[in-house]
Amino acid sequence: QKEDWPMHKLECAAMCAFGQNWNPSETVRLTARILAKQKIHPERTQSEKLLAVKEFESHLDKLDNEKRELIQNDIAALHHFYSKHLEYPDNAALVVLFAQVNCNGFTIEDEELSHLGSAIFPDVALMNHSCCPNVIVTYKGTLAEVRAVKEIEPGEEVFTSYIDLLYPTEDRNDRLRDSYFFNCDCRECITKEKDKEKLEIRKLNDPPSAETIRDMIKYARNVIEEFRRAKHYKYILYLTLIALACELLEICELSLDKMGAVFEDSNVYMLHMMYQAMGVCLYVQDWEGALRYGQKIIRPYSKHYPSYSLNVASMWLKLGRLYMALENRTAGVKALKRAIAIMEVAHGKDHPYISEIKKELEDH
After folding, report:
1. Residue 133, in any domain of the structure
2. What gap in Å lies between CA 186 and CA 160, rounded to an integer?
């Protein structure tokens, strides 16, 4: 706690100065902490044994105008919120640092994959990406822990995943190019062996044409992107407005109806919208609605995601807690045990999350 005081002091002073107008992004807050830490500890830290923050890849030469503009907005926010509490390098150095953070930052999530914050773990950032990862990164307090989820031979490279692996090959590589500036050449991306199942088409007496399928995939991608924007700009800002949550749920349901004319329920675009709808139901405390969506999601998730996926574990966990809340203890116990089985591999048997879930089982 004493070691962390300079970081707490940095944020507390700025928060007190701005009060309700305090709203820097996660990236800005993380960058401010990095700058403060580099000032206090100019030497390499314990988390930089293999790689220092200053050695992070920035991909500066690959940034388009939009990304450069976003970085300049972040720099302006950094100056606005922290100008009285930080010493800054020049603008060019800040551009590099923000680019490095964007490429190497980690999103910290809880056991249900709800967002907790952002951090950097330099040595962990050394790992390359694969859509067939052999390790998984989880978090315990301020530590990142890396655990094998497959047998790894001596000398074999360790791979993690940088992205959500639910989606088909083209979508995954779009995301990798946009955020990390490379295409993946792992076995799954080369063979595309899971794409047919992930994009499963409804079996009809009059099958949809190839053009209809292409148009529906394009629609699905667009509506998912629009929903993400709406959730980011409205849902986050006006979280207290139930009306907006209902509006988002209506978007999900209308999209599911339209896509469902062509796609099977196990299609990943259907699953994406079901997951968003489930989240809105949880927010407005419609437990039965959330459970209905979760029940549709869990089996295809288990098929589409790799073994020991945190996405599958978190869905079993949510289902277990919903069953318990709705007094279906038998189903709740079964679901929570399925979550624990995955999490004991991904998080380790001694992780506090697992102790908490086991206590939930005992209390019920």
Report:
1. no
2. 12
